[in-house]
Every structure is written in structure tokens, then in C-alpha cells.
Amino acid sequence: MKRGNWIAGMLLIMLAVSVWFGSAGFPPESSFFPRVISVVIIVLTAIMLIETKAVKDETVFEWAAANYPRTGKVFVLTAFYSFLLGYFGFIFLTPIALLAIMLVMEKGNYGTKIIASVLTTASIYLVFEVLLDVPLPAWSF
Amino acid sequence: MFELLLQGFATVLQPQVLGILIAGTVGGIIIGALPGLTATMGVALLTPLTFTMPPATGLVMLCGIYCGAIYGGSIAAILIRTPGTPAAAATVIDGYALAQKGQAGKALGISAFASFFGGIVSASALTFIAPQLAKLALSFSSPEYFAMAMLGLSIVSAISGDQVTKGLISACIGLLVGMVGMDMLNGVPRFTFGQVDMLNGISFIPVLIGLFAVAEAFRTTEGLMKRQVHDFSLSGVLPTMADIKRCFKTMVKGSVIGTTIGIIPATGGDIAAFISYGEAKRSSPNGDKFGTGELEGIAAPESANNGATGGALIPLLTLGIPGDAVTAIFLGALMLQGLRPGPLLFKDNADLVYSIFAGMFIANIVFLLCGLFAIKYFAKVINIPKPILTPIIFILCVVGAYSINNSMFDLLIMMIFGVLGYLMQKYKFPVSPIVLALILGPMAESEFRRSLMLSQGSYDIFITRPICLLLLSVTMISVIGAYLKQKKREKSEGKALETSR
User: Fold this and answer.
1) Could you give the count of Cα atoms lying within 13 Å of B276 in the half-sphere of its Cβ?
2) ipTM, two decimals
3) B52 contacts in A (CB within 8 Å)?
4) Percentage of residues in chain B with pLDDT exceeding 90?
5) How remote is the C-alpha of B122 from its chain's centroid?
6) B364: distance to nearest CA of chain A, Å?
7) Is the pLDDT higher at B346 or at B180?
8) B335: Cβ–Cβ under 8 A, 6 or more apart, which residues?
9) pTM above 0.90?
10) A52 has a pLDDT exceeding 60
11) Phi-psi category of B193—alpha, beta or left, where left has phi over 0 and alpha has psi -120 to 50?
12) Inter-chain contact B426–A60, Cβ cutoff 8 Å?
């Protein structure tokens, strides 16, 4: 936790400094608020870091535990799905992505998972495209 | 007023609107009944759906989800000792104990009735108090709006729990995110890095979905539990007249407590439920039986947590101040429809406001009917395995974020904020302040600058107007009070630690 707070603190200070200098080119009325906030961030970060000294340290991520690789894989799959959605379209990609994420979460039960993937895709398509007339990404090749 | 209310009912009772309200309420019950899915997550996830609907239909659906989810939380609390939502945490105590005695049906029945009672009382309060408050707020001008936005932002310290400093930092991040895009008053692009996608600012729906739904789904993935199948046999769900008579006083008190606490920003159903439970235990002649499966022990928290739903909408609709995460998302949904909550909403869109009121009443009736006659089907959703449910949530997040603007950029924003939200929760940075600041920040900035234009650059305008001065003073007291409270708590915790050594 302590190390995390220190890293967060450094990132926040970098953000605040970037905002301060990033707003240098704005007219005075447009740069006033960003600059005030960048100063407030620096002050609050300093308070947080001082408070961190008194905090009892605790482990936030136990990398050896099986859960984190699984969470990482799910993130990568969701990110890929989001990225590829515009190319392969909702109908083609969604059942594949759903099945893949379900299998990363838990192996086995293939039949149930295939049915759940197809039914979910069909239900979402029905609600968004057919009932609400909200366009979903289509195959673009 | 009654004419407008009747008009509101006429709107909500149209077959299409009613169908969507019922679907929303049923969806809310399912979301609430599933441990790990909260009312906030449900409302965040389904807000994009409202974009293509007429404003009344979309907002009424959100009311249904909200009321349904708060009630639904009690189903898992009673049946599997796991509150479906934080608001149902107090219901576990007597609800589960009664279920263990083989009277799960009775517990679910009184829970549905008490939730309905609380919901109706709070919807009535919303209908009759909100317009009066809005009338008062009609005298507001830019300085008062600025002060009100600051008051809304000061809630950050209260919703940050024991992490006030980190909550304030989160709020600052939200304020910065709210500044991305063209300056509203002079059109200067700020922090857009030459990206056309960023000129209109960062859409708050992908941010909401990322922070609440995606981050929560990551957490569920991390702590995935083994499959558990529960077998429920439910009978005697309909409460008897004797049961209702016995719990009547408790329900009245719970509803008043819930509605009052709901009005106070930064509180919510969970706090209301515990206070109501404590009060019922203190004042009931059966107080010593609480914890062993006492009916009043279920009626008290359930009437209070649903009582808080209407109460929470009062400051949002009248002043534009969202008191918690769910109402912050409501605020987002209203803005998505091009509406600005506050006194003018009552003047310019009275029909819509009264449709929301009518929707609250009908949502409560819908979940009562579901709770009394279809409970055995809702009880089954608890058995949906997480490895199937969580991927569906991920896909819904992606579709929801995309469908607002049909933009891949929004998906990127959702993923970034999903990871940010997950890491923030890990390192105990409260996430709700980001949303609050993202929504209220632009209002605070523009009204501040407009005020200075009005006063030709003089800051006196903020202290010479009584309402503005009052609101700013309350803001100061709220921030300082929360900070001192945290220090006091830390001190007493430190002393307790030393004593235990």
C-alpha cells in the first residue's frame, strides 16, 4: 500500500505539473481553473504522502495468487474485443469473445457456455438493434 | 400539481412506457439479487439504453432499475446471507435467521411489503416536497449556482469514507477530466492534444461504465468464487394482516427515517437501513428478539432503504445536487437527454418531472407484485454462475459505452477508466468523487466565470448575496467538519490500538 501511494503521489505530481505548463498557452480565464486544480493536487498529494508515513503497510497485490493472471487475461481479451469490434462486427465477434472470457474464468461446461454466448449475443442484438434501433458495429471487410 | 401528476401517470401508463418500466424494475430486482452487482452498477450499465428513448421513458426505466435493485438486494440477504446490495446489509440479520427457521417465504413477503411501503412514502415526499423546494430555488442566479455546485462538490469529503484526502484527489482528477474539450465560454480547446474526438470533451457515460461496472467486473474476476447451488423452497410469501399490523409502526418509522436520510446528500439506503434497524430494536417491545428472526427486524431496514430512493432524488431534481453515486448517474442520464436538473427543470419540463414521480410510484407497485407473486423465479437468479455472468457484464459494458456515440474512442475511455477504477479501489481511492466532479466541475467553472462577468471581476458577488453566502458557508463547514471527523476517528483508533497492546 505504501509503495502504491508513493507511486500514485509521483504520478499525481507529474500530472499537476503537466496541467500547469499545459495550460500556459490558454487565455487567462481558461487557464485559471486548471492551474488552481494543479496546485490543489500538489497540496493534497503532499498531505497524502505525509499521511502514508503513519499508515500500516499491507500487501495489495499478491502476484503469486492465481487470480491476477486470470484478471490480466480477461482484461487483454476485453481490450482486444473492444479494438476488433469495429472490424469484425458485433454478431461475429461477440460469441467468440464471450466464450473465450468464460473459459478463462472457468474451464469446462462447454455446452452451457456456448449456448450462453450465443443467447447473450442474440439478446443484446435484439434489444439494441431491433427494439431500440441503436446501431451496433458491423463487419467492415 | 394534481393535474400534472395525473398527466405523469397517463404518460407512464402508456403501454410502451409501462412495458419498459416493468422491464427496468424486473431487471433491477435481478441485478439487486445478484451479490456483487449493485444498484449503481445496474443504473450505470443501462443508462446508455435510455439515450435513444424519449426522456420520460428512459428516466422512468432508470427509476424502475433503482427501486427494483434496492428491493432485490434483500432476496440474497434473506436466502443466502449475502446482501445483494449494501443497502440490504441490515436485512441479513433477521432475514437470514427467519429463513433458517424454515420461514424464508414469510421473510421475503414482509421484505417486499415493507420495501413497497417505504418506497411509496418516499415517492409521496418526492412529489410534494420537491416542487416547493424548486420554487425557492428559482430565485437562483450564477453565483448561487456556483455555490450550489461547490456544495455538491463538498459532498466528496463525506462520500469518501475514511479516505478524505484521497477522495479530494479523486475529485480533482474528475475536475480535470471535465475540463478536457472546448472551453464552454470562449471556445478555446483545452487538453485535447489535437484530437478531434476530444474536442467535445470526455463523455461521462464511458467514464461511469468504466469506473463502476468494468472495475467491479475486474474485482469479481479476481475473487471468483466456486460454484454454489442453493435450493430454496418458498411458501407463505403473502404477509398476513396480523404480520402487517405488527410491523406497521416500524414501517412508518423506517419510511420516514429512510426518506429523511435519503434527502441528506452523501448518505444512502445502507445508512438509513442500519439507523432504522437500530431505532426499531430500541423502541420495539420485541427488541430483545431482534437477531433471531424477528419480522420487525426485516421491515425496519427494508422500509428505510427503499424510503431513501425517493428522498435521494429530491436534492437532485430540485437543486441539481446528486447525493450519491446512483443519483450522480441519474444526473448524467438527465444531461444525456439535454436536460439540466434544478429549479428550471420544474418550470420548463414539469411534465417530465411528474412522469418521474409517477414512475417511482408504479415501480414500487411493480416490485411488490413481483416480490409477492414471482419471487421463486427471482430466487433462482442467485444460482447464475459468476464465470458466465461476469463475461456478459464485460460485453454489456463495451456495447453500452459504444452505443452512446458509436465511437471507438469511447471504448478506449471506458477501458482506461475501468483499469483506473480497479487500481483506485485497490489503493483505497474512492471512485464516486471522480463522477461527481466530472459532472459538477464544468458547472462550477462556468457559473464562477459568469458570476465574475456579472460583477465585472469583483469577488464580492459571492459574499453579498445571502443565499450564495449561506451555501458557501455550509460548503466550508461540510469540508472542515468531514476532515475533523476523520482526524478524530484516526485519533480514537490510534488510542484503541495502543490500549490493545
Assistant:
1) 42
2) 0.91
3) 132-134
4) 19
5) 14
6) 24
7) B180
8) B204, B439
9) no
10) yes
11) left
12) yes
